[in-house]
Amino acid sequence: MMDTLEIVQGAAERVLFEAPDSNYIIFRIRSEADDSLLTVTGYGTKPLVGDRLEIQGKWVQHKRYGRQFAATAWKRLIPDTEEGIERFLGSGSVKGIGPSLAHRIVAVFGSETMTVMDKEPQRLLTIEGIGAKKLAMITDSFYEEKQVNDMALDLEQHGIAGRYAGRLVQKYGDDVMYVLQEEPYRMISEIEGIGFKTADQIALAYGMNPQSSMRLAAGLTYMLHDMTQNGHVCIPDTELVRRTALILRADSLFVHDALGEAIDSRQLCTADYGGTTYVYTPEACEEEEYTAQRILDMVHMKPLTVRTHVQLFLDRWQDSCHFVLADKQREAVERSLQTGMLVITGGPGTGKTTVVQTIIRLAEQEGLRILLCAPTGRAAKRLAETTERKAKTIHRLLIPDGFSGPVQVFEYNETKLLPADLVIVDEVSMLDMEMMYHLLQALSPQCRCILVGDADQLPSVGAGAVLHDIIRSGAVPVVRLDTIFRQKEGGRIVTNAHLINHGRPPIVNEDQEFRLIEIEKEEEGAEQISRIYAAEVQETSDVFSVQVLSPMYKNPCGVDKLNELIQERTNQPSPEKTEYKNGKFIFRTGDKVMQKQNNYDKGVFNGDIGKIFAIHEDTIHVRYPEQDVRYEGQEIDEITLAYAITVHKSQGSEYRTVIMAIVSSHAIMLQRNLFYTAVTRAKRKVILVGMKRALLAAVQNIRTSSRFTLLTERLREEEIC
Ligand SMILES: Nc1ncnc2c1ncn2[C@@H]1O[C@H](COP(=O)(O)OP(=O)(O)OP(=O)(O)O)[C@@H](O)[C@H]1O
Questions:
Q1: Could you say which of 42, 67, 92 is where a domain stops?
Q2: Could you say which residues bind ATP here (predicted)?
């Protein structure tokens, strides 16, 4: 039997949830039928508090939240009762009117109030407390409110979510229709929450010709940005045209012409190399050119005249360490002050930190001003711990100073240089092109730079493959540390990491340090992982020292499912715990969560892990090692459950125990450098749960997706025009 739809009417009381990436919302209304409070869920224009709504839908029973009205559609009704009008006006929807003024207005105009406000607003002057200034404020706000409503309706009629109406009216006022019809792609850079896809949907709905050059140019820029999100700095023109034509469903020839126009008008830039034309955004092109030139300048810096007898210094230093420095380690220290830029690379336990400590000592003895930094907060913290010196993220070191258009500006830049003679950057595998550019800009011509990292780790999240490209170019001196020193705790992990890196399977189950628990079915594996996680946490009494990693979000052993299972097992609902539900998860007091993006205002960064210690309605409080952070409303979308995280998100972090899902359905992601990165996150214990064949596939698969950049070629001073 088909469910019949019902109609409920009532005034909106409160919006409980608003999805950031769709127009799905959950709100409460007070029913006109019996004055009860109802929870409504559905997709549509967000109602304002006090809005009188007619909602179509059906009653459903939610297993956790009880009876709810699942709406298929709703529309706004003009408040018709005096009480409704008063509630609407007093809700703050109209600037200048609070509850008591709303009461006085409705007391005078009664059910005519809305008509008076719309057609004869000057009559409001008769109300005590409303003068000319206030009247202007009220009418402006009422007009805008009406405009938003009309706009929402118009958008909905064009098949577009009405929730954009407020932002559009606020930004463009009376010009909103002009923008929608004539220059819709402006919205991408001007309206928060509107990306290319939405702008394009709006543009087409409001009559844009699908083959118009404006649309094609916007599509090209979008595709280029999208590719840089995937790590590319530039992209071959043919590939860009092909992909753009595909998403726009436009003719490649027209897209090609539009690309030509965008290049002529300098909206996009190009570089020709080896018979291929590569397309860049102007910013990316500037960053790559500058970075290459600056590195070449640094490589040609004169060696520093040092007072210290370096060989003697190293002999004394190793005596104090009670071990003999390997030749490569000595070489790294010796070269550190000879060249303007040096790369020190090596796998885990090969003595990188020891070399950095030695270089710092030498440089301090020479009276050099040293600055230590790393691409992420966690890496900077570890650098500070191992060197017992101050270390910052590159971002913090340069001090953010707002934006110029889409480009981040820093206090330290080419006009204000960092007070340093030597900058040491750790974990450079995570350094992207943009950050490298900003860092190099802030270095004085006399400043030297040492890049330390493990070139075999996954590349940076941001665009570029800076470390990889620099090493490949052969233009910069590189010292590759290859002797494994760490023997005691974590020794097995280190040797296995090196085996993996050399394409050989790790030695498993010879001790407790590196185990493989074989499973047949992935569902069974997910259960095992949640059980092992619980046992390991119990053993260490520290949720942060045990981390589950998985290559993907989807599938039975993916991050999403694992989080659900582990939450179910280790943090069950109870009367003392409060909860918050967003589209995807239930957050509960006690949950382990992760920040998904950098938030400089709150001082929390992509990959930071904390624990929820309180939830009040739509506010979640998270305790991070450094500080407590409060997330409210939409901000909650910045966090996710973190019992399990992806290997990519674990980059730069270290845990006592790593539990990793290694199963066949993740085959597409099982690559050697991903497996290697996962294993090297563990200090004491690795527990792999999965299938031997998946493990072997991961070790053998070196088919990493390469990134389009010309940094290597520029560093080799090859012909690029
Ligand atoms: N030449 C050496 N002889 C003996 N032991 C060494 C030597 N160099 C470093 N070690 C020791 O080996 C261990 C690993 O060294 P270190 O921490 O410097 O390596 P790493 O490359 O920074 O490791 P990771 O990347 O895993 O942090 C340390 O205990 C260190 O004291």
A1: 67
A2: 349-353
End-to-end CA distance of the chain: 69
Alpha helices in 158-249 (DSSP H): 165-172, 176-182, 186-190, 196-205, 213-229, 237-248
- Nearest residue (by CA) to ligand 1, atom 18, is 351
Instruction: Kindly report the CATH number assigned to the domain that includes residue 644.
Output: 3.40.50.300
Question: For residue 104, what are the contacts with CB-CB under 8 A and spacing of at least 6?
Answer: 127, 128, 129
CATH of the domain at 125: 1.10.150
- Gap from CA of 485 to ligand 1 centroid (Å): 5
Per the domain annotation, does 445 fall within a domain?
A: yes
Which residue, 236, 293, 231, is CA-closest to 259?
Answer: 236
Q: Is 462 in the pocket of ligand 1 (CB under 6 A)?
A: no
**Total domains in the fold of the chain:** 6
pTM for this prediction: 0.79
Please work out whether the CB of residue 582 comes within 6 Å of at least one atom of ligand 1: no
> What gap in Å lies between CA 165 and CA 23, rounded to an integer?
12
Nearest residue (CA) to ligand 1, atom 16: 351
- pLDDT, tens only, 402-417: 888 778 899 999 999 9
The answer on whether 58 is annotated among ligand-binding residues is no
Please tell me if the CB atom of residue 352 comes closer than 6 angstroms to any atom of ligand 1: yes
How do 66-77 and 269-273 pair as beta strands? Answer: unpaired
CA dist 63 and 73 (Å) reads: 23
Q: Distance (Å, rounded) from C-alpha 696 to C-alpha 686? A: 16
pLDDT (mean) for 667-678: 92
> Measured from the CB, is residue 350 less than 6 Å from ligand 1?
yes
Q: SS3 of 232, please?
A: coil
Counting atoms of ligand 1 from 1, which one is nearest the CA of 321? 31
352 labeled part of a ligand binding site: yes
Distance of CA 52 to the CA centre of its chain: 38
Q: Which amino acid is at 709?
A: T
Q: Is 350 annotated as belonging to a binding site? A: yes
Residues 166 and 237 in one domain: no
Express each pLDDT in 440-457 by its tens digit.
Answer: 999 999 999 999 999 999
Query: Are the beta carbons of 580 and 591 closer than 8 angstroms?
Result: no
Neighbouring residues of 513: CB distance < 8 A, sequence distance ≥ 6: 490, 491, 492, 493, 684, 685, 686
Residues 273 and 378 in one domain: no
Task: Give the sheet arrangement for strand 392-393, strand by strand.
Answer: 392-393, 370-374, 422-425, 448-453, 341-346, 478-481
Residue 708 lies in a domain: no
Q: What are 29-80's pLDDT values in tens digits?
A: 999 899 999 999 988 777 877 778 888 889 998 888 889 999 887 877 767 7
Q: Could you tell me what percent of the chain has a pLDDT over 90?
A: 68
Is there a binding annotation on residue 349? yes
Of 208, 176, 205, the closest CA to residue 190 belongs to 176
ipTM of the complex: 0.97
